[in-house]
Amino acid sequence: MNNLQVRCIKMTVILGGGISGLSAAYYALENPRISSMVLLEASNRVGGWICSNKSPNGAIFEQGPRTVRPRGPGGKNTLELIDRLKLTEKLIPIVSSHPAARNRLIYAENKLHLLPNNLKSLFVKNSPFDRPLISILMNDIKAPRISKEDESIYSFVERRLGKDVADNLISPMICGICAGDAKQISVNFLMPSLFEAEQKHGSIAKGLLMNRVNQMFATKTKVIEVSGSGTAEMARKNKWAIWGLKDGLEQLPRTLADNLKSRGLDIRLGNRCERLTFKPGYVELTINGETDKYSRIVSSIAAKNLAQLVRRQHPQLARELEAIPTVTVAVVNIQFSGNVLPMQAFGFLVPPKENLPILGVIFDSCVFPHETDTVLTVMMGGAWFEKNFGECPSKDEILRVAVESAKKILGIKESPVAHKVTILRDCIPQHVVGHKQRLNRIHNYISAHGLPLALCGSSYQGVGLNDVILSAKHAVSDIS
Ligand SMILES: Cc1cc2nc3c(=O)[nH]c(=O)nc-3n(C[C@H](O)[C@H](O)[C@H](O)COP(=O)(O)OP(=O)(O)OC[C@H]3O[C@@H](n4cnc5c(N)ncnc54)[C@H](O)[C@@H]3O)c2cc1C
After folding, report:
1. Does 3.20.20.80 match the CATH number of domain 3-48+248-323+433-477?
2. pLDDT (tens digit, 9 = 90+) per residue, 249-261?
3. CB of 113 within 8 A of CB of 106?
4. Prior bond of 280 cis (ω within 30°)
5. What is the 3-state secondary structure (H, E, C) of 239-273?
6. Which of 49, 62, 275 to mutate to test the pocket of ligand 1 (most atoms within 8 A of CB)?
7. Which of 166, 227, 337, 472 is within CB 3.0–4.6 Å of 24 for a Cys-Cys bond?
8. pLDDT tens-place string over residues 116-127
9. Which residue ranges make up each domain of the chain?
10. Which class would CATH give 99-218?
11. Would you say the CB of residue 430 lies under 6 angstroms from ligand 1?
């Protein structure tokens, strides 16, 4: 073994330079048990699905994520990272009274419906539901408890709140969260508090009430916990609903990469790992036909991709990893001259039962105004990509469908002045029924076989940016 090989064998390797791989490297630099490290990224850029482009007239066209929630442990953690990276001044907060936070629309039965956003909606009929919210609550209180390990979000909501809520609210919401089919996504994973509410207390309403009571008693401790944490605390006090970054979200991975490089991290672009082989005391990576040895690996790549790397040596692990499916999303950014929108809102979602070829439209220029122009993003495909567009649709066809749908639904007469079409293959993992149990089996396998492998990224603990950054923090803090 030569000197270089001996040095590498003491090194940790991080696989993937998306936001979770970069975050893993950032937190690993704080772990004294990790002495040296390298990050390998297959493509020629960092950021993964986070990609902010500029239109010819200067509007930001986000290809992937654009807004982040400030709430919860994950939201607070991301804002702490923003503070540490000195990106605070770039933040664009959207407070809860802003139209982009209050107004969320559903397009059903040929019209746009504003989702209930005030107390009055408890007692009056709210289209697209033909009953007031209070009647939906009564549904839940009366519905019997059924003990289950897991089920789809659709069937849970249909059972407890009614088919109209499952079809017109939850199904489009799941399209908005993960471009997925609510009939496949796990309720125990995505909405564990609602699921546990039924399992422990017999109904969602009773369970949430009990949680609220418990929280009231725990308030004192919570205030102490969050006070003094900079922007996260400011976001809580000022009731931020979401936030974005001036000039686009891609600044986050870029700044993170610059920070890591300035602290000596070796980020190797164009390094696609082709195989992983675990040997006693080290792991061997095959990259561009050459092999390197490392003491341990933190994988931030999609589970499906990791499955291919380990299949030969660990077929059972590969089977579990590849059972976490992904969906493809077509993203079409369009810009119109002037304000062409019927109202200020975050955007609208389309329930799958409408059988339309789009998942929804985000009104980017309401969230982050760009001069007087209107900027929209049409999301298409997801769980229905192949059904709606076949295996290999042309970008022209995708653009035609996106522009026609947006113009028809929003009553726009003008033609776009700029556009960008991107097809993001296998971009969002789907946490389908049984996901929690699958994660347990994966972790049990890794520990039973003593593999020096830690996992993070959107395949495991959630697809939001907050989830993946937190998953990276946990993955490296667990390394001893
Ligand atoms: C269209 C879209 C909209 C979204 N909107 C939001 C939003 O508004 N808010 C929000 O919170 N979240 C949103 N998300 C989710 C969020 O963007 C992702 O979950 C997150 O960016 C995933 O980051 P990651 O680092 O885990 O994975 P990735 O971004 O996939 O990064 C993985 C990296 O690993 C590299 N790689 C893969 N295989 C190998 C290999 N063999 N060797 C070396 N490198 C490899 C890839 O090139 C990639 O750079 C959205 C996602 C999409 C697709």
Report:
1. no
2. 999 999 999 999 9
3. yes
4. no
5. CEEEEEECCCCCHHHHHHHHHHHHCCCEEECCCCE
6. 49
7. 472
8. 877 776 677 777
9. 3-48+248-323+433-477, 52-71+86-97+325-429, 99-218
10. mainly alpha
11. no
